Amino acid sequence: MKKIALSLLFLGSVAFAAEANATAAKAAPAAGDAAAGKAVFAKCAGCHGQNAEKAALGKSDIIAGWDAAKVVDALKAFKAGTYKGHGMEGVMKGQANALSDADMANVAAYIASLKK
User: Fold this and answer.
1) Whole-angstrom Cα distance, residue 104 to residue 41?
2) For the segment 19-42, what is each residue's pLDDT rounded down to a tens digit?
3) Rounded distance, CA 56 to CA 44, Å?
């Protein structure tokens, strides 16, 4: 009985630690590398402009200077198919699907560094 109780206690602490790590990861996305993000952004420039100064296809918001967390959130929502707005969901879902989490963090850091 004592072994069962200790096993349950151990499993509970492991589950708690895993949940705490997952929550921390959601709360604080990894900081990106703006220099690496510039290379990722190259394929975005056709619609968003060289410095993210354009409304993509005349529909989207101008994203230059967006906070990095806002960029990551938008890209993840496009990838998940939950982003709503401007009618760009179909185009951006395909673009976002090609990005890893590191790519998203990097391009977000780059976009955040651009002036409006």
Assistant:
1) 10
2) 544 444 454 456 899 999 999 999
3) 9
